């Protein structure tokens, strides 16, 4: 008789990497400063892998808002939003987000992953979802949950997207899914191309703005605002765990769609409500995003500087003002070794291998935040220079 747990074995390479001392995951952070530093095993390192892009998780105003709400309302809601967990605080946050995003309605969820899983209620077995090759795992899971057929187009390849749309059943419902700014590379979606093809083929468009809300666009509303094509996006999702510095997520769109999701999205109906502290923190952070655009300007300047320095060292990084930088390595073990070299130099990055990226395309993900100082950016660049020399990855000495 087969044992259902027999498959639950890690590959032999897991122990090999652990024995080499280059295993990069589940590093326990003991302390986190309001700036961009963390303590691990008693060592202080520059945090260069965080999604806390605007540095708001350590902002005193955000922390105090969370503490005050927790004291007033407790640490949890006691139930789902549908049953008994809804708070006036949730509704205030939804109203504020709707105004900020310029959407008719917003539904707040307990996590960004759950916001995207809610999209599963919008599709069924008769529908086709066409997603960018690099969309996040939670978007793929949403399609599986809804039972729709998933087709993938090459990253930002509008020719390939057009061919998939042309080849599809014209009678089927079609949904194009993209991220606004992609989490692994920092690239921005080709929304003009997507919008044009959606109009021609009668497809709906969903944009996951987890990494671009708060950063892109004149007001920080994300990639759609940056492109000047907010009306081309039918439904927009976001998380609070990036630019807003806390936990939670949201789905924004037409009133009838959001009302439908409130009653039929399993990740909304069957999960506990967002905690009062996180809801209050998101509200406070949202106010800071709107009132302090200089944070975005500082972030863009820092990103442009560091990406330029990494490119000058010989790494295949395209200089840009986006905060996410993918440093290609290719081989998994070499990627782990580079991560360890950087760690030993006092810089904490993120090593990404399959399935987080396609097989054979391992990379080091570096992210800049508004909290990084000039001295910390120097440390990151110096660490890459030293590690690159030792591993013969960077030709410049």
Automatic annotation (TrEMBL):
Task: Recite the UniProt keywords alphabetically.
Answer: Aminotransferase, Membrane, Pyridoxal phosphate, Transferase, Transmembrane, Transmembrane helix
- Matching Gene3D superfamilies: Aspartate Aminotransferase, domain 1 (3.90.1150.10), Type I PLP-dependent aspartate aminotransferase-like (Major domain) (3.40.640.10)
* Transmembrane helix listed as a keyword: yes
Q: Which cofactor does it need?
A: pyridoxal 5'-phosphate
EC primary class: transferase
Coiled-coil residues are none
| Residue ranges occupied by any Aminotransferase class I/classII large domain in the UniProt entry | 49-383
Q: Name one GO molecular function term.
A: 8-amino-7-oxononanoate synthase activity
- The EC designation for this entry is 2.3.1.47
Catalytic reaction annotation = 6-carboxyhexanoyl-[ACP] + L-alanine + H(+) = (8S)-8-amino-7-oxononanoate + holo-[ACP] + CO2
Record-annotated membrane-spanning stretches: 268-291
* InterPro entries, per database record: Aminotrans_II_pyridoxalP_BS, Aminotransferase_I/II_large, AON_synthase_class-II, PyrdxlP-dep_Trfase, PyrdxlP-dep_Trfase_major, PyrdxlP-dep_Trfase_small
Membership in a protein family: Belongs to the class-II pyridoxal-phosphate-dependent aminotransferase family.
Q: What protein does this entry describe? A: 8-amino-7-oxononanoate synthase
- From which lineage does this chain's organism come? Bacteria, Bacillati, Actinomycetota, Actinomycetes, Streptosporangiales
């Amino acid at each position: 008789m087969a044992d259902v747990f027999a498959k639950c074995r890690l590959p032999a390479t897991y122990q090999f990497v652990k024995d080499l001392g280059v295993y990069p995951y589940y590093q326990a952070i003991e302390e986190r400063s309001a700036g961009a530093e963390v303590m691990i095993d008693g060592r202080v390192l520059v945090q260069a892998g965080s999604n806390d892009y605007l540095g708001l998780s350590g902002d005193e105003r955000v922390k105090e808002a969370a503490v005050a709400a927790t004291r007033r309302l407790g640490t949890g809601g006691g139930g789902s939003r549908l049953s008994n967990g809804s708070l006036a605080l949730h509704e205030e946050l939804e109203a504020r987000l709707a105004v900020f995003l310029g959407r008719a309605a917003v539904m707040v969820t307990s996590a960004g992953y759950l916001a995207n899983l809610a999209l599963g209620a919008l599709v069924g077995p008769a529908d086709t979802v066409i997603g960018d090759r690099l969309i996040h795992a939670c978007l793929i899971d949403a399609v599986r949950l809804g039972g729709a057929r998933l087709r993938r187009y090459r990253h930002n390849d509008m020719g390939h997207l057009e061919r998939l749309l042309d080849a599809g059943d014209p009678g089927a419902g079609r949904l194009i899914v993209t991220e606004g700014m992609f989490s692994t590379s920092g690239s921005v979606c080709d929304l003009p191309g997507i919008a044009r093809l959606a109009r021609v083929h009668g497809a709906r468009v969903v944009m996951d703005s987890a990494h671009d809300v708060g950063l892109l666009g004149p007001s920080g509303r994300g990639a759609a605002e940056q492109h000047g094509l907010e009306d081309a996006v039918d439904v927009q999702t976001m998380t609070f765990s990036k630019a807003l510095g806390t936990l939670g997520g949201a789905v924004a769109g037409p009133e009838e769609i959001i009302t439908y999701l409130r009653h039929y999205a399993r990740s909304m109906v069957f999960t506990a409500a967002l905690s009062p502290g996180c809801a209050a923190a998101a509200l406070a952070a949202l106010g800071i995003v709107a009132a302090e655009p200089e944070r975005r300007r500082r972030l863009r300047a820092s990103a442009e500087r560091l990406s330029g320095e990494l490119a000058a060292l010989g790494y295949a990084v395209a200089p840009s003002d986006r905060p996410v930088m993918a440093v290609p390595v290719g081989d998994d073990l070499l990627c782990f070794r580079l991560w360890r070299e950087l760690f030993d130099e006092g810089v904490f990055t993120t090593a990404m291998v399959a399935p987080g990226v396609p097989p054979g395309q391992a990379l080091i993900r570096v992210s800049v935040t508004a909290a990084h100082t000039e001295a910390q950016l120097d440390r990151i660049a110096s660490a890459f220079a030293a590690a690159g020399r030792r591993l013969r990855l960077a030709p410049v000495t």
